[in-house]
Design a protein that fits this description.
242 residues; Thymidylate Synthase, Chain A; two-stranded antiparallel ribbon
């Protein structure tokens, strides 16, 4: 039975840990894992060092590198505005081309949010949403969606395509404005990707909230399939130690 499994946690780190423990208890895979993170600002430095050290010693992707594919938060802090960030990231020979240009799929989440190449040209989905919210007199609770996958080959690709499908931006009818995200992954690797994914989504939420003068409230992330497929014994030791 593919019954949904629900995890509630304050921080993305606690959410990742709870999800990881469930995977350890369920033969290393789950379907329809629903994770809700209530505080995108919460960050435990000591916890993070343990996860980063594990990634380094096992030759895995660095969590920061994974987070950066969703939102390059240090670039935003450096360039301070959304328009500056989009320009520096997407311009010819800019950040994206220098860092990820040789890869067809790795590192393209933020690129597709801000430089989605469709049949009618390039679309900056994030910029359109930020402008739409700022220019609207009404609060539209569930009108804004960021699409990552491209129709056609990527939607039937078992391996290699983007695992993040889409992000819904949700506003609550309140003063001040409150903002949350709903994110859907088709496949979620808890060993190497999920920790950084959750971190990057928290940074993305804070960015959008800052640009529309809202309070970032929470993230709900649905993983159609969550799994761990290697380093299982060492991973269990890490989880037990946290």
């Amino acid at each position: 039975m593919l019954n949904p499994v629900l995890v509630n946690a304050e921080s993305f780190q606690e959410a990742w840990l709870k999800g990881s423990r469930l995977l350890v208890q369920n033969k290393w895979e789950l379907w329809n894992l629903i994770v809700h993170i209530t505080n995108p600002n919460s960050f435990d430095t000591i916890f993070h060092r343990s996860v980063s050290r594990f990634a380094f010693t096992h030759n895995l992707l660095d969590p920061k590198a994974v987070a950066y594919t969703i939102f390059p938060y240090k670039l935003y802090r450096r360039y301070r505005t959304a328009s500056n960030l989009f320009h520096v990231y997407n311009k010819p020979h800019g950040f994206y081309e220098r860092k990820y240009g040789s890869s067809k799929y790795w590192g393209n989440y933020f690129r597709r949010m801000t430089y989605y190449e469709g049949t009618n040209g390039v679309i900056n989905q994030l910029e359109n949403i930020i402008n739409a919210i700022n220019n609207s007199r009404r609060i539209h609770k569930a009108a804004y969606t960021i699409v990552i996958q491209k129709p056609g080959g990527e939607t039937v690709k078992p391996l290699g395509g983007p695992c993040l499908n889409y992000i819904a931006i949700q506003q609550e009818p309140s003063t001040p404005k409150r903002l949350s995200l709903l994110c859907v992954y088709r496949n979620h690797d808890f060993l190497e990707r999920t920790y950084g994914n959750y971190w990057g989504l928290c940074e993305l939420l804070k960015f959008i909230a800052a640009e529309i003068e809202a309070i970032p409230t929470g993230i709900t992330c649905i993983s159609s399939h969550a799994f761990i497929d290697s380093h299982k014994r060492d991973f269990k030791r890490l989880v037990d130690s946290l």
